[in-house]
Structure to design on (278 residues):
C-alpha cells in the first residue's frame, strides 16, 4: 500500500543506518562535523523551557529563544544566547509578525530543525486560587488563548518554509489540565491546552505531506514556578510514582520527539505525569 501525497511532495524517509544510536550523542558528533541543528524555543528562561534549552545546547544545537524578558546569560548559558534572543510578548498576536521576521533574520535562510511552543500562562486569583469559568474576565481569556494557542499557530505558519527545508519537528507543550478539571489550573488555561492538543492533531495531518512532524507533550505536576504551593501535598498521594516530575525529565522527552529516534512519530500527545492519568 502506498501513501498518496498531495501535490506530489516528497516526505523525508527513514534515517540512514549511520543515524542509529543515541540521538543526543549523534547530534554532538554532527556538530563536530559542522552540521549544527537549530531550535526555536519559546519560554526558555525558566522551568521546562530552561531545562529544554540547556539539554539541546549540550547536544550542540543552536538555540533561538523568544520571551518577554531580555536574555539572561546567567540563567541561560547557551552559546550566542543574547544574539539569538527575540524579545517579544507572545500574548500580543499583533507582535507575532515582527517576532517571526526577527527569527527569520537570525536564520538567514538556514533550515529550522525544531520549533518548541513552550511558553504559557496560568493566571490565578490574588490569593492563588484557580480562576473558574464564572470568574475569568474576557481580557484574561483573550490573553491566555493568544499566548497558549494563537502564538503556536502563527509561529508554525510563519516558519513553515524553514521547517520544511529541514524536515523539522514541532512540539507543543499542553498539560494534564487539558483533559480533566484540575484543582489549581484555571478554566482558561485548561481550555487553551485542550485546544492546543486538538491543534497538534490537526497540524500533524496538515504538515505531514511536507515532511514536518508535529507532536505534543502533556506534563502533569512538574516542579516549576507555575506549580501551586499545595500541589505536592494534595496531589502526590494520587500519583502512582508518588512524586512530582522535574523539568529535566520533560526536556528529555521533548528531545526524543525532535530527534531522528522519533522519525516515525507524529500526531501524538505524550503524557509525562508519573502515571497520574491512569
Amino acid at each position: 500500500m502506498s501513501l498518496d501525497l498531495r501535490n506530489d511532495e516528497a516526505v523525508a524517509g527513514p534515517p540512514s543506518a549511520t543515524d542509529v544510536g543515541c540521538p543526543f550523542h549523534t547530534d554532538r558528533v554532527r556538530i563536530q562535523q559542522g552540521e549544527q541543528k537549530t531550535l526555536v524555543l519559546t519560554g526558555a528562561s525558566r522551568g521546562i523551557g530552561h531545562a529544554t534549552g540547556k539539554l539541546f545546547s549540550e547536544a550542540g544545537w543552536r538555540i533561538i529563544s523568544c520571551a518577554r524578558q531580555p536574555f539572561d546569560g546567567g540563567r541561560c548559558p547557551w552559546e550566542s544566547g543574547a544574539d539569538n534572543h527575540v524579545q517579544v510578548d507572545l500574548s500580543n498576536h499583533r507582535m507575532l509578525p515582527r517576532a517571526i521576521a526577527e527569527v527569520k533574520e537570525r536564520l538567514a535562510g538556514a533550515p529550522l530543525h525544531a520549533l518548541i511552543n513552550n511558553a504559557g500562562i496560568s493566571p490565578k486569583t490574588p490569593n492563588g486560587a484557580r480562576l473558574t469559568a464564572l470568574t475569568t474576565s474576557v481580557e484574561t481569556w483573550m490573553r491566555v488563548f493568544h499566548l497558549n494557542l494563537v502564538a503556536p499557530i502563527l509561529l508554525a505558519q510563519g516558519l513553515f518554509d524553514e521547517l520544511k527545508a529541514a524536515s523539522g519537528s514541532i512540539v507543543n507543550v499542553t498539560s494534564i489540565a487539558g483533559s480533566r478539571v484540575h484543582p489549581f489550573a484555571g478554566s482558561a488555561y485548561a481550555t487553551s491546552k485542550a485546544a492546543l492538543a486538538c491543534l497538534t492533531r490537526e497540524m500533524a495531518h496538515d504538515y505531514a505531506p511536507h515532511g514536518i512532524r508535529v507532536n505534543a507533550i502533556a506534563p502533569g505536576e512538574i516542579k516549576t514556578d507555575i506549580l501551586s504551593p499545595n500541589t505536592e501535598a494534595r496531589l502526590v498521594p494520587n500519583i502512582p510514582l508518588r512524586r512530582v516530575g522535574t523539568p529535566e525529565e520533560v526536556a528529555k522527552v521533548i528531545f526524543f520527539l525532535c530527534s531522528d529516534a522519533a522519525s516515525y512519530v507524529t500526531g501524538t500527545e505524550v503524557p509525562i505525569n508519573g502515571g497520574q492519568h491512569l
About this structure: The chain is about 35% helix and 10% strand.
